[in-house]
Amino acid sequence: MSHVIPASLFAGGLVLGVSGALLLQRSPAPVPVAAQPAAQQAPSPGPPSISKPATVVDAGPSSASSLAVSNSQLGPASYPGPVSDFLQHAAYVSGYDRRLRHPAWTAEHLTAASIKRPPSPPGGSGQNVDRALSVFREDERIPEMFRARMVDYLRSGYDRGHMVPAADAKSSQVAMNETFFLTNIAPQVGAGMNRDYWAHTEDFVRRLTARFADLYVFTIPLYLPRQSSDGKWRVTYEVIGNPPNVSVPTHFAKVILGVGAASSNDRKLAPPPAPSSGGLTSKVGFATHDSHMLALGAFVMPNSVIPNEAPLESFAVPVETVERAAGLTLFPPAIKSAAKRLCDTVKCQIIVREFGDKSKSLSAPAPAPGAVPVRSQTM
Ligand SMILES: *[C@@H]1O[C@H](CO)[C@@H](O)[C@H](O)[C@H]1NC(C)=O
Ligand SMILES: *[C@@H]1O[C@H](CO)[C@@H](O)[C@H](O)[C@H]1NC(C)=O
């Protein structure tokens, strides 16, 4: 019933780059799929303020007047448009990058209850949330010029990779449908990545709801430089579509904050505690209800085939590494310093299994096998 949990994200609010503070709430009433663009509210010219739950959105011509003073030097050019489109949904919020035409970031609040299907009411005519009923769709909240198009992905060789996984949004069909907006999608290598290691990582994140009362999860496409033979660092990436429209990230980050121990009911599915190194685990006293417990983990994975044997922990990086690479402040310093390392708290390990989920895939040519995660980049 109340599978939609009203809860504010990151206790005091969450700072996202220049977009100011943002208070994520699971909306009690699901947002209809054909949602209106989020509030037309110009970003404040002042420094981001934590106390103000701001929604930074389109600052198009309609809001230009409010910026007239600060932008007077720009003359008729005025304010050049939004930093990112802030999009709100039943199961997640996201920022869209109009230049790259995929999400700049997505954020979710997961609990053991939120990732479950709603219970069927007695009588059996319950709502059956099914991803087979969802279809990918262009997001008409984004102006056509900046929109990712279905044709861009067609025969691109890449999967339409969910940033917020559909399986995280089983609370309602609306919630699941909303994960199929192309504003929640980025081009991902299919076999060996989106359909395999990345899917296993998403599953790992969901299993963490058995350990933590609340999980806050960012998924962030990244463009990381690689050193060329002349010694200089460059970012190179493919752009799909004809004409080219949608950029292909070089990497993807998952950033996970676990808050408070899950109740013992929810702990049955918990990943086992870390082995010997996990002396910490016992010190933390996971079994007790420690509502102040914080654990923070960040993983950066290449957008290429990753062998299932690669240890999940080998992709772990400090959260600052992701923040620096993404240009986003994901957590206030107090959270970062108070949080334990996720992989010291739980066993960071994927479980390899067939998802049998081919609905994500387009008939994509498999990428060259044997590609190895590239971890030498500076981030
Ligand atoms: C989900 O999407 C499908 C396909 O577009 C549509 O037929 C269905 O009505 C949607 N369901 C809800 C609850 O919005
Ligand atoms: C994106 O692709 C479409 C064709 O599918 C094209 O008409 C459009 O101009 C492209 N958009 C951009 C911004 O290049």
From TrEMBL:
- Broad class of enzyme this protein falls into: hydrolase
Q: Does the entry feature the keyword Signal, yes or no?
A: yes
Q: Where is this region: Disordered?
A: 34-70, 360-379
What broad taxonomic lineage does this protein's source fall under?
Eukaryota, Fungi, Dikarya, Basidiomycota, Ustilaginomycotina
Which BP terms does GO give this entry?
A: apoptotic DNA fragmentation
Boundaries of every DNA/RNA non-specific endonuclease/pyrophosphatase/phosphodiesterase domain copy: 88-337
**Which ranges carry the ENPP1-3/EXOG-like endonuclease/phosphodiesterase domain?**
89-337
- Protein name per its UniProtKB record: Endonuclease
One matching Pfam family is Endonuclease_NS
Query: What are the binding positions for Mg(2+) in this chain?
Result: N194
Question: Which species is listed as the source?
Answer: Pseudozyma flocculosa
Q: Please, which domain of life does this record's source organism belong to?
A: Eukaryota
Taking the record's annotation, the residue ranges forming a coiled coil are none
| EC number(s) on file | 3.1.30.-
- State the Gene3D superfamilies in the record: Extracellular Endonuclease, subunit A
* Keyword list, A-Z: Endonuclease, Hydrolase, Magnesium, Metal-binding, Nuclease, Signal
List the signal peptide residues.
1-20
Similarity comment: family membership: Belongs to the DNA/RNA non-specific endonuclease family.
Q: Which GO terms describe its molecular function?
A: metal ion binding; nucleic acid binding; RNA endonuclease activity; single-stranded DNA endodeoxyribonuclease activity
Is Signal one of the keywords? yes
